[in-house]
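Usage

Read records sequentially. Each one opens with the input sequence:
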Amino acid sequence: MIRIIQNWTLLRAVRLGVGLLLMVEALRSQNWFMTAAAAVVIIMPLLNIGCCNNGGCGIQADKVTAKPQKETDYEEVI
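and closes with the structure output:
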C-alpha cells in the first residue's frame, strides 16, 4: 500500500490519467481486449512499476579491457 502513495511524479500521474481514459473508452465501446490493456496501463503507475524501473532496460558495459592495438605497417604498391 505504501508504494501506491509514495513517490508520485507528474509523469506517473499522466500515465494513470491516460490509463483511466483508455479504460472508460474501452468499456464504452465494449472492446474487451482494450479493457485488459487499459487495466495493465492503470496498474503500472499505481504500483510504480515499468519496463525501465530500477535499470531494467540498462545496457551492461563490456567487462573486457581495451587491448592496445598493434600498429599496421602499409607498403606502397606501384
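Summary fields computed downstream for this record:
- Helices lie at 2-5, 10-29, 32-47.
- The chain is about 50% helix and 0% strand.
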